[in-house]
Write a structure and sequence with these properties.
With about 350 residues, the protein is an alpha+beta fold. About 45% of the residues lie in helices and about 15% in strands. It contains 14 helices and 10 strands. A 3-stranded antiparallel sheet has the order 2-6-5. Strands 8-10-9 form a 3-stranded antiparallel sheet. The protein has a two-stranded antiparallel sheet with strand order 1-7. The longest helix has 19 residues. The radius of gyration is 22 Å and the shape is globular. About 30% of the residues are buried.
Length: about 350
């Protein structure tokens, strides 16, 4: 009989907190490095682990009703048909403990999911019941786990990229470690964490532009954390990336953004959504945002650095008393950036 680790105790203690999911750090840090699931399947995985809670290491059937999934803000309006391929993805996820290239003593290969059943609608309630058993490898991992990540569910459900979810859950598993505020990944390690297969985004510039920076920008917007990524070079080649993090002193802006998305989603479902008024960010660069697209479209070439453009435009607005959230801020920005001169 395996002794229970601390992760299960933490999950049991938080069983009634529906805003957080306790996940074994071994899963959060990407122990499964084969067949990483899609964004929708990742969100379903988080929901399954959160639903199981302190019972995730029990070899029992777990269940949730389709109507309960549909109530979750940030999850798609799923049907049994749309969930079936997601369960198939999770059935294909491979959990591997040990590196066969350097660890010759023990390598374990198993799965996240044993099997799942998606019942037809109940003739009385009209609801659909979804049930599943976790795979033996996941159960044993959860049983032994002494390290965990506590993830804000609404952050996970609102992230729009699987890379953002994978990076967020990995960093979240490190946040509570004493005196640890950064981690340096070799480029292959970071690719593994993000589930990027060989042959895709081989050049670091492409990896950084398409995956790393957009993921960090999204995590910074929707989570309690602020992340930064610093490439480390050997000669002219990027050999590793240091990702540092800090918790926001006041996560109120993040909560407001999540509430805005929640309200907007309800309005879209009701067909009453209005076009949102854009707000120019009060700090930081405008890289990877709609403001960058406007700058690249309207600014004289060569286009200046996005951080420089952002700082100069804020100075321009401050000098004229123009609020960054005014209804005409986008029009003002386009007119200003069209005449921008840097030098």
């Amino acid at each position: 009989m395996l002794l229970m680790g601390k992760t299960i105790d933490v999950a049991r203690d938080r069983a009634f907190d529906q805003t957080k999911t306790v996940m074994p750090a071994e899963v959060s840090r990407g122990v499964y490095i084969r067949n990483a699931p899609s964004l929708a399947a990742l969100k379903l995985m988080h929901l399954m682990i959160g639903t199981a809670g302190g019972r995730m290491a029990d070899p029992v059937r777990h269940e949730i009703r389709l109507s309960d999934i549909r109530k979750i803000d940030g999850m798609d309006n799923h049907s049994r048909a749309s969930l079936t391929p997601l369960f198939e993805e999770l059935r294909a996820v491979t959990i591997r403990e040990g590196n066969p290239e350097i660890d010759t003593d023990r390598v374990v290969v198993g799965g996240l999911l044993d099997h799942a059943v998606l019942d037809r609608k109940d003739p009385v309630s009209g609801d659909t019941l979804l049930s599943w058993y976790f795979g033996r490898s996941f159960i044993e991992m959860a049983e032994k786990s002494n390290h965990w990540a506590i993830l804000d569910r609404q952050t996970v459900f609102h992230l729009g990229s699987k890379y953002s979810v994978l990076l967020f859950q990995h960093i979240a598993s490190l946040v509570n470690l004493d005196h640890v505020v950064a981690k340096t990944f070799s480029v292959p390690e970071l690719r593994a964490v993000l589930g990027i297969p060989e042959g895709k985004l081989d050049r670091f510039s492409n990896l950084n532009q398409r995956v790393i920076q957009p993921s960090i920008a999204e995590i910074n917007e929707f989570s309690r954390l602020t992340l930064t990524a610093t490439p480390n070079k050997i000669g002219r080649t990027v050999a590793s990336v240091t990702i540092a993090w800090e918790e926001k002193p006041d996560p109120a802006d993040t909560r407001r953004e999540l509430d805005r998305l929640k309200d907007g989603r309800k309005a879209r479902q009701a067909g009453t959504a209005e076009e949102p008024v854009p707000t120019f960010p009060e700090s930081g660069s405008i890289r990877w945002s709609s403001w960058e697209a406007l700058a690249r479209e309207h600014a004289p070439k060569p286009t200046p650095d996005m951080g420089l453009i952002a700082d100069k435009f804020r100075d321009f607005c401050n000098g004229r008393g123009l609020p960054l959230a005014s209804a005409s801020i986008e029009k003002t920005f386009v007119a200003w950036v069209s005449k921008l001169r840097v030098g």
